[in-house]
Amino acid sequence: MDSFRNQPNLPIDVLKKQVKAKWNVDAHEDNVGSCLILMVERPMPEVPCRFQRLYVSFAAMKTGFLQGCRPVIGVDACFSKGRYKGQLMTAVGRDANNSMYPLSIVGLVPSLEQVCPTAEHRTCVRHLYANFRSAGHKGLLLKDLLWTAASSYTQTDFHYAMEEMKKVSEPAYDYLAKNDPSTWCRGCFNTMAKSDLVHNNCVECFNSWILKYRQLTIMSMLEGIRNKLMRRYVRKRELIAAMEDGSLGPKIMAKLEKEEDGASHCWCTYAGEGIFKVECEGKRVAVSVEGRTCGCRKWDVTGIPCSHAISAILYHGGNPIDYLSD
Ligand SMILES: [Zn+2]
To answer: What's the gap in Å between 159 CA and the centre of ligand 1?
Structure first.
């Protein structure tokens, strides 16, 4: 294998012949750019190789992620359930419709801190809550306050929820305060990813989606997952082909419609220099239509105009759809 690595410009035909001669395997040119890393252990030359780990990512999946997904990756591990015990680790992105987009189907994902040192890291709040509860902080009120804090789009609302928690249980507050809010509170997320995800449901969905393959042997499991992914991509491609140019994914459309309903409760006033003052249900925020920002930060974090923004956009004579993030 090292001899191939040392000759990255080896012509394809020569490579195919050498692979065939060495391993009696027919190499194909499909999905060029795909990545497969296999690690085996062989403590002594006379014993057969023993599987250690494997990483697979198809070029088409990587291209699709770069071209059509949000810059967000969920990573999680689950156990294989069959005779051969092991862990199955998955990286799942989010497509333009906020649906799951599997990125690397099996493998040991390198430490994200090493690969993406500048990337924002988020903690799954469902896991955070499970640990919080296991630490003895139980009850519906504490659960609601934790989720309210995590779901707050501004740091003001986050601190308000945390102060409420302090009044209910100081140990619960102290436990949560030890966790850096930039990893689990929407109010602290950067606005580049245009995603307000606070949980890792997509990866867990994927893990249960492939449940029946997790009890198979490694090769059968890989083949089963590959086929299932292939069928999913075909279905998605047909769905997209049937859509009109420029139309939105149904999940994004539903979110926008919900915000449009909320805009009917907003009262908008032009405050000069492209800024609008919007009052809604007792709250007052500033919206900059051209700056695509709202004081509630929901538009900034999600990329979907919030009800305040829609109120200002309509006042401005615009169409909310034109103000969705690309
Ligand atoms: Zn807003």
So the answer is: 18
Separation of 213 CA from ligand 1 center, angstroms? Answer: 44
Q: How far is the CA of 285 from the centre of ligand 1 (A)?
A: 7
Domain ranges of the chain: 2-54, 59-120+202-240, 125-188, 250-323
293 three-state secondary structure:
strand
Q: 100-104 and 266-270 as β-strands: parallel, antiparallel, unpaired?
A: unpaired
Q: Which residues pair with 95 in a beta bridge?
A: 69
140 alpha carbon – ligand 1 mean position (Å): 28
Assigned token pair, 315: 């006042």
**pLDDT tens per residue across span 180-229:** 999 999 999 988 888 898 888 888 888 888 888 888 888 888 889 889 98
pTM of the predicted model over 0.70: yes
* Closest to 322 (Cα-Cα) out of 285, 290, 288, 284: 290
Q: For 284-298, what is each residue's pLDDT tens digit?
A: 999 999 999 999 999
Distance 125 CA to ligand 1 centre (A): 23
What is the distance in A from the centroid of ligand 1 to the CA of 263?
A: 10
Which runs of E-coded beta strand occur in the chain?
35-41, 50-57, 69-79, 87-95, 100-104, 266-270, 275-280, 283-288, 293-294
| Alpha helix (H) residue ranges in 117-185 | 125-134, 140-151, 155-168, 170-177
Cα 130 to Cα 21, 136, 138, distances in angstroms: 54, 10, 10
CA distance 145 to 142: 5
- Token couple for 153: 């789009």
171 alpha carbon, distance to own chain's centre: 31
